[in-house]
From TrEMBL:
Protein keywords: Cell projection, Cilium, Flagellum
GO molecular function per UniProt: structural molecule activity
InterPro entries tied to this protein: Flagellin
Superkingdom, natural source: Bacteria
Stated name of the protein: Flagellar hook protein FlgL
Annotated stretches, region: Disordered: 205-229
Gene3D superfamilies for this protein: f41 fragment of flagellin, N-terminal domain
A Gene Ontology cellular-component term: bacterial-type flagellum
Length: 367
């Protein structure tokens, strides 16, 4: 009888108590880990219980939003360089327009030569600025950012197209109108295949929209949301087909470069040269119109920057909301953890006291 009691009484009670102690110890270990990790429920997905599916769902969403935010950051970096470059180009165009105004009246050959030389230098500067980089690619190159938009900036001012356009001014002496010369210069600019990369410009002496259509296909865009993309940046040769005419390529930058080539061809002229007044007036008008178009480009870039900033703000809010949901799914109330930990410690203490007391119990204690 006493043996049965020993086997099924004390031993059974001890086993049950030991199992309880182990369970409490495991709970204490978990609670201690949660306390030291600011209430995170478990260090493994398996330990998250019913919250596991929520965590699995939210984690890739947060990663995706982060990727969209990164795309916006890259686009903004590129736009920042674009805005600075356009500002430089506008400044160069305005400066040359001012120079033309200064020689509208009586001007000596030396004065005109000075403006002509500056136009050639300005042309080279514009070509160089168009190859501006954001550190990873050329900002005016469009989609193929690794291909420089201007093939050789150092050769533009002395290249074939520049020389041909400048030489058209010699026809003024024989009575050719400035309007006709401007048309010839525009055709030569459209037919050029040496200045710009073939990825953003198509040479055609008969189709003024060919290059513009090519530039349009190279517009850069980036993913900024679920089924949402944002177009941004400026392609060096872009423009509006509605602006194409016999005296305009439709591309503000091409027209600006053409005008610089024409001004550089004024070397040797003076205010007494045949057709001089009409030449200066028409070129000044063209420069003013082109400058206004370039300023509109600046405005477009500014609008793109504002739109991306607004999108980034929205994504920041989305990220905050998703991370809050993830935190709620992965963590528990730290105050409740403290209470549970205290209760478990109390239970463990009681269990150890009971185990200690059981060691001294006799058969009589069980009867």
């Amino acid at each position: 009888m006493s043996t049965s009691i020993g086997q099924y009484g004390a031993s059974a009670a001890s086993l049950v108590l030991s199992a309880g102690v182990k369970e409490l110890s495991d709970a204490q270990t978990t609670l201690s880990w949660q306390t030291s990790n600011n209430g995170i429920i478990s260090e493994t997905f398996a330990g998250l219980g019913t919250s596991r599916s929520t965590v699995f769902s939210l984690t890739p969403k947060i990663t995706q939003v982060a990727a969209w935010q990164s795309n916006i950051t890259n686009a903004q970096n590129s736009l920042s360089v674009t805005a600075t470059s356009l500002k430089q180009i506008v400044s160069l165009a305005q400066s040359m327009a001012t120079n033309l105004l200064s020689i509208t009246g009586s001007s000596s050959t030396s004065t005109v030569n000075s403006v002509s030389t500056e136009a050639s230098s300005t042309l080279s500067q514009i070509a160089t600025v168009l190859n501006a980089s954001n550190g990873t690619g050329y900002v005016f190159a469009g989609q193929n950012a690794t291909q420089a938009p201007v093939n050789d900036p150092s050769n533009v001012a002395s290249g074939t197209t520049s020389t041909q356009i400048a030489s058209t001014l010699s026809q003024l002496a024989s009575g050719t109108s400035m309007d006709s010369i401007l048309q010839q210069a525009t055709t030569l600019m459209n037919a050029d295949s040496s200045i710009f990369s073939s990825t953003i410009s198509t040479a055609s002496s008969t189709d003024g929209t060919a290059s513009l259509n090519t530039a349009q296909t190279q517009q850069t865009s980036t993913i900024t949301g679920d089924s949402t993309s944002s177009t941004y940046g400026i392609v060096a040769t872009q423009g509006s087909t509605s602006d194409v005419s016999s005296t305009s390529t439709g591309s503000p930058i091409k027209d600006l470069m053409r005008d610089m080539m024409l001004i550089s061809g004024m070397s040797g002229m003076s205010s007494t040269s045949t057709g001089y007044s009409d030449l200066v007036n028409q070129l000044h008008t063209s420069l003013v119109n082109t400058t206004n178009q370039l300023i509109n480009m600046e405005t477009t870039v500014g609008a793109q920057q504002n739109a991306l900033t607004a999108r980034a703000s929205l994504l920041t809010n989305t990220t905050t909301a998703l991370k809050t949901q993830l935190s709620d799914a992965r963590t528990t109330d730290i105050a409740q953890v403290a209470i549970q930990s205290s209760n478990v410690q109390a239970s463990l203490k009681a269990s150890f006291i009971l185990i200690a007391d059981m060691k001294d119990m006799t058969l009589a204690n069980y009867l």
